[in-house]
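Kindly inspect the following:
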Amino acid sequence: MSDDLDVLLKTRGQTAELGANVTAALFDLSGQAVFACGDGTLRLRDGDGYQTLQAHDGAVLALAAHPSGGVVSGGDDGRLVWTKTGEVRELAKFGSKWVEQLASFTGKGALIAAGVGKLVHLFDAEGRKLRELAHPSTVTGLAFDSKGKRIAAAHYNGASLWFTGSTAAPRVLEWKGSHTGVVLHPEGTSLVTSMQENALHGWTLPEGKHMRMSGYPAKTESMGFTKSGKWLATGGADTLVLWPFFGGGPMGKPPLELGLGEGIIKRVACHPQHEVVAVGFSSGLGLMIDVPGEKVLPLCAPGRGAFTALSWNAAGTHLAFGTDTGFVGLVNFSG
C-alpha cells in the first residue's frame, strides 16, 4: 500500500475498523458523522471513538439525515427508526417488508420519505404519516427536489414524479427496463435514472424529452449533480464520468472523464459548495477530483475493501467514507 496515496488520511484524517460492513454514511444537522452497518448498528462519532447503537435487528439498508436532528434509518427488519442523542425511536413498522429507500428534505415543510415495496410513505418531521404514494412496482430510488415540492421515485419501466403537497396523480416518465436509482437536477430541469443495463436514462422537465447515456462497463451505483448543476457525476467506470448539462447537453456531447483508477467507481459525492467530486473505487482507492481544473488528488490507497459509503457535511469541510470490510475514514479539509 502506497504511503503517498494515504497522505490526506495521515495529515487530515482519522480512521477506524468497525468490524461490520458499512452500508451508508452521512453527517446529521449538528455535523456529527454517522455510519450505518450491516449488523444493524449505527456508529456515531464520539470524541476520539464511536458510540454504538443497535437500531435494527438485521442490516441497516437506508440512512438519511432527520430534519429535526439525528438520523432516520430503515432496515430489513421492516422498521423505520429515528435515532437522536442516543435514543432510538421507532417511527413505523412495515411487517416483513424491507425499508430499502429513504430520502429527507430539511427546511420549511420538512419531509421524510420511506420506500417500502411498491409504496412510498411520506412523513412530516414529527413522524406523522401524511400519505402513501403507490407505484406499479418496487421503488428502487427516491429523491426530493431542492425545495421539497416534488419527489421522484424510480421503479420498473421508468420513474414517477409527485407533488409532495398534493394528492394528485404523479407524472409518469416511461422507459422500458429496470431503473435502479434517481436524481433530480438542482434547478428541477431534468430527472435521471440509473439502469440495470449499465446505462442512464433521463428526461427533460417539463418537456419530457428523452436523454440516453450509455457505454458504461458496469452498473452505475452512485451519481449526483455538481453544485452548479453543470455536470452529472457518475460511477460505473474506471474513471469519473461527467455528463454536461449545459450548452444543449448531454445529448450529442461526449462526457468528460477524469481520475483513472484501479477498479470501478462505486460511490461519488459532489461537494456542496464547489465543483469538486470525491470518488471511491471497488479496490478501495479514493480520489478527490477538481472538475474545472481537471486535477486529481489522492484520498486513500486501495486495499481496505470496496467503497460502500461516501458523504460530505453541509459546509463541505469534512468527508466521511466507509467500505465493505468495515474500514471508515473522516477527513477534515477545513483550515
In short: Residues 7-12 form the longest helix (6 residues).
